[in-house]
Amino acid sequence: MTQTTAPTPAYRDLHRLMSLMSGDEKHDPAATSTLDALWVLYDRVLRVSPQTVDAPGRDRFLLSKGHGPMAYYAVLAAHGFFGEELLAGFGSYDSPLGHHPDRLLVPGAEIGSGSLGHGLPLAVGTALGLRAQGLTGPRVWVLTGDAELDEGSNHEAIAYAAPAGLDQLHTVVIDNASASYGRPGGIAGRFATAGWSVASVDGRDHEELYAAFTAPHPGQPRAVVARVAPKH
């Protein structure tokens, strides 16, 4: 599969790109809830490009919220990781763009995801692996949903990351009020209690997202809770 050099990406193109994909409408809210956070990350924060997807010094982005990946695919296409002509085949038998991303098929994807609760533990392991290799520059980013934080694997990852001093680790939680179980103090309080640096922002406000994503957090992992309207 050849990589494509895209024109300067524009946020206004994303809804058109997403409209090229059909067949998974039940996950439209899951996809659109991530759209703005993904855009700000890939457009202004992540140090990765189509030319550096295999570079040791790249930032790693792990999409844990892998069900409904249409926004993710649209953002990747807008930034030239693959041509937008692939979007129309989304979910078809011979398309690399499945209903759950496959890291072996999707250029730029670091993990296969969609089975919830795996991304944050994998991100912890990735940060530990980078540390073991002496790679202190690359950052690890993982995007999760609020509901998947009910998974026990995430509880263990949250509890472990701060005592381990994993300040290369960044978690973006899309909070669209879909979780079945609440937590005392809310999502931000849960991370803060475990020793993380935390911010809670409007998940549609690009400047709030950017400021939260780029705030210093020496010695601590970072969690950004991005609030969006329920089911959107």
UniProtKB/TrEMBL annotation:
Superkingdom of the organism of origin: Bacteria
Stretch forming the signal peptide: none
Keyword NADP appears in the UniProt entry: no
Molecular function as annotated in GO: magnesium ion binding
Key words, A-Z: Thiamine pyrophosphate
InterPro entries to which the protein is assigned, alphabetical: THDP-binding (IPR029061), Transketolase_N (IPR005474)
Cofactor(s) required, per the database record: thiamine diphosphate
Tagged with keyword Cell cycle: no
SUPFAM superfamilies named among the record's database cross-references: Thiamin diphosphate-binding fold (THDP-binding)
Record Gene3D superfamilies: 3.40.50.970
Domain Transketolase N-terminal span(s) in chain numbering: 27-215
Similarity field: Belongs to the transketolase family.
Stated name of the protein: Transketolase
Organism, as annotated: Streptomyces sp. NBC_00008
Lineage, uppermost ranks: Bacteria, Bacillati, Actinomycetota, Actinomycetes, Kitasatosporales
